[in-house]
Amino acid sequence: MTLFFIQRSVWALLLWPSLLTVSMPLDCKEEQGSLSGCTSISQEKLLDRVIHHAELIYRVSEESCSLFEEMFLPFPLQLQSSQAGYACITKALPMPSSKSEIQQISDKWLLHSVLMLVQSWIEPLVYLQTTMDRYDHAPDMLLNKTKWVSDKLISLEQGVVVLIKKMLDEGMLATTYSEQGLFQSDVQPEMLESVMRDYTLLSCFKKDAHKMETFLKLLKCRQTDKYNCP
Asked: What top-level branch of life does the organism fall under (predicted)?
């Protein structure tokens, strides 16, 4: 284990509790499963909380991906993974890819794009927790981060659903998005294949988490300074 990795792990251990405490609550579900817990929050504050959640999710996904690389994936395998053509599970979703495309889509599509991304990752992250439990010597920090992101993603989904209702004046949407065949977890791969698949999931989720954050921040910018958004 390199000195760099030891130092980064120590810093991560020190910062991890503080990361949990600065996270603003976004748990909208109440006892009967309603979303009224978030409907009482103003649109502006709700959008700020949703953005804050997305920022934290992206930050922790970056840390998880780096930790996974250090623990289980030597550099040659990282190159092999990038060259193997593993497709991200959300590749088929109708997402804007270029900066010009993102700037041209409406607020409605920004929100619905975030919702599609969030909902398409809920099941794969649950699967990721299950498969990483089978690893030998998987650090608790990695397992805890994965579970934390999975839990926060559900909270983010709830917040985005209420935000859609508030900003677009649309009826409450069903909080389940499914794409047939988007993710298949019934086949148990060999260990090396499992490591490569899990790394692909983490890498793809990190990219999509960055998209969620970018879309939400653009939406926030449009609310305050429509003509000067990047």
From this structure: Eukaryota
CA 124 vs CA 29, 70, 118, 198, 219: distances in Å: 22, 22, 11, 10, 27
Question: For the whole model, what pTM was predicted?
Answer: 0.77
Count of C-beta atoms within a 10 Å radius of residue 194: 16
- Token duo for residue 25: 């609550």
Is the distance from CB of 197 to CB of 189 less than 8 angstroms?
yes
User: 107-140 burial by CB neighbour count: b if 16+ within 10 A, else e?
Assistant: eebbbbbbbbbbbbbbbbbebbeebbeebeebee
Residue 98, class by beta-carbon neighbours within 10 Å (0-12 exposed, 13-18 middle, 19+ buried)?
exposed
One-letter amino acid for residue 201 of the chain: L
Token pair listed for 156: 């983010």
Cα(230)–Cα(219) distance, integer angstroms: 11
In the numeric block, the tokens 């979303």 are attached to: 35
Tokens of 12: 């991560």
Q: How many residues does the chain have?
A: 230
Question: Residue 40 corresponds to which amino acid?
Answer: S
Chain-centroid distance of CA 207 in Å reads 8
